[in-house]
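Researcher: Re-running this chain for the archive, since the previous output was lost when a drive failed. Same request as before.
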Amino acid sequence: MPIVIIVAIVALIFAAVELGFIPPLNAQIVVRVRNGSLVFERGRLQGNASEHVAAILRGARVSDGYVAITSGQRVYFSRQIPHDVHQSLRNVLLNQCR
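Model: Regenerated structure tokens:
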């Protein structure tokens, strides 16, 4: 029975990450948006990438949420970040990681 509980917990965590409720546990960079300003929980962005990200999020009127980047260059977004700005954010974030 304990294996069922462990599998259920792992599935719940996976679903929460994929649905944008929590950032992935293996993220190298986690940027939170709090009241419209960027707060780095993990890692840093290079150069002026943070200004570009802030401008994109400000233009989309995002006041809360997160953006996370894993070591495999996968970008995760919280549910509060509109889908139509995901690609713009990916372009800025992944170009700065090169």
